[in-house]
From TrEMBL:
The keyword Heme applies. InterPro entries: Aldolase_TIM (IPR013785), Coproporphyrinogen-III_oxidase (IPR034505), Elp3/MiaA/NifB-like_rSAM (IPR006638), HemW-like (IPR004559), rSAM (IPR007197), rSAM_sf (IPR058240). Transmembrane segments: none annotated. Belongs to the anaerobic coproporphyrinogen-III oxidase family. HemW subfamily. Keywords: Chaperone, Heme, Iron, Iron-sulfur, Metal-binding, S-adenosyl-L-methionine. GO terms for cellular component: mitochondrion. This is Radical S-adenosyl methionine domain-containing protein 1, mitochondrial. It comes from Stichopus japonicus. One of its GO terms (biological process) is porphyrin-containing compound biosynthetic process. The keyword Lyase does not apply. Residues 37-273 form the Radical SAM core domain.
């Protein structure tokens, strides 16, 4: 059955049926009312999918490499946690959903739609609310992405990292630049104007010329949003170990600062506005979800590597939220609450 939210999308697309019309009418009324929702009843939602196909050499995000993911169980748990946190937070309106990872493009589309549906069933959500997903080039074929689109995704963030295969290898990525270009083309046909690319700079042995070439490469093929991240050396990663052992060296601080400045200038020249440290958008294609973090908006985090920031209904009852009555108080991954 169509969710309420996707019912509205279908209506907008010209699909007519009595049941969706009734659902849409209810939802439209709900949305009208939601205009009155005060800011402390509004939040964005981050959903963490914790699995990857391979561990990249630089990444210490919370992730697991598994060939035997229990998708049924994951769907059940993520839906349950979403419902629980929405209800406990007292949030009445969700502005955007972001599926991050790990590699959420490895999740089953049914998991994504179950979560999107459960949000739109529980709280008000605009029919065109931003629903983003991070994707890796090796799990972003056209058909797969089209299934995610049907599941409710309307914005995609693709991890390209570099257009040079030697750097992709050094970073431990499991794709080539050609794989990334193919995935990008598929993404642009399905989510026109709503595709973002991630690139990394400050990679071992990377020169200013290498970086300039990557920037020109990305500007040739990109859509309207680009994220440029400085490589951070993270404890526990292979890159950290190799660096400690003196086997790799990173560009020095001045070189890395130059890379950033070159990027900022080139992006501006190409019509991209820097709306936070690492993110650039043109034609107003900022990520609503990302902007909300940077402007102090409330967010709820669901999944094993997520955290949140929101005020509780009724004031500072942090303790009762962390340790609900009768519980043994063992969930230390509960949300941190600014009240
Ligand atoms: C955690 S990943 C999740 C999305 C997806 N798995 C991917 O690799 O694109 C999100 C972004 O964080 C970047 N990232 C992870 N560790 C990083 C680090 N140590 N320094 C800079 N960027 C990093 C990734 O390269 C990616 O672009
Ligand atoms: S960078 Fe992305 S694909 Fe690589 S290990 Fe981290 S989350 Fe997984």
């Amino acid at each position: 059955m169509l969710s309420k939210r996707r019912g509205i999308l279908h209506l907008l697309n010209g699909v007519r049926s009595l049941s969706t019309n009734i659902t849409n009418k209810n939802k439209a009324e709900e949305l009208m009312n939601s205009k009155q929702v005060p800011q402390d009843k509004e939040a964005t939602l981050y959903i963490h999918w914790p699995y990857c196909q391979k561990r990249c050499h630089y990444c210490n995000f919370n992730k697991y490499i598994s060939q035997n993911v229990d998708h049924k169980k994951m769907k059940k748990c993520l839906v349950r946690e979403t419902k629980t946190l929405l209800s406990m937070s007292g949030v009445e309106r969700v502005k955007s959903i972001f599926f991050g990872g790990g590699t959420p493009s490895l999740a089953e589309p049914a998991t994504i739609s179950a979560i999107v549906d459960c949000v739109s069933d529980a709280v008000a959500m605009a029919p065109d609310a931003e629903v983003s997903m991070e994707a890796n080039p090796t799990s972003a074929e056209w058909f797969r992405l089209s299934e995610f689109k049907t599941a409710g995704i309307n914005r995609l963030s693709l991890g390209v990292q570099s257009f040079k295969d030697s750097f992709l290898k050094l970073l431990g990525r499991n794709h080539s630049s050609l794989d990334a270009l193919r995935a990008l083309e598929a993404a642009k046909t399905l989510f026109p104007g709503k595709v973002s690319l991630d690139l990394i700079f400050g990679i071992p042995n990377q020169t200013l010329t290498d970086w300039k070439e990557d920037l020109e490469g990305v500007l040739k093929v990109c859509d309207n949003h680009i994220s440029l991240y400085q490589l951070t050396l993270e404890r526990g990663t292979n890159l950290f170990k190799w660096h400690q052992a003196g086997d790799v060296s990173l560009p020095n601080a001045d070189e890395t600062a130059d890379m950033y400045q070159i990027a900022v200038d080139r992006m501006a020249e190409a019509g991209f506005r820097r709306y936070e440290v690492s993110n650039f958008a043109r034609d107003d294609s900022v990520s609503i979800h990302n902007l909300s973090y940077w402007t102090g908006g409330q967010y709820i985090g669901v999944g094993p590597g997520a955290h949140g920031r929101f005020a509780l209904p009724g004031g500072n009852n942090r303790e009762s939220f962390l340790w609900p009555k009768g519980s043994k108080g063992t969930d230390t991954r509960a949300q941190f609450l600014d009240v």
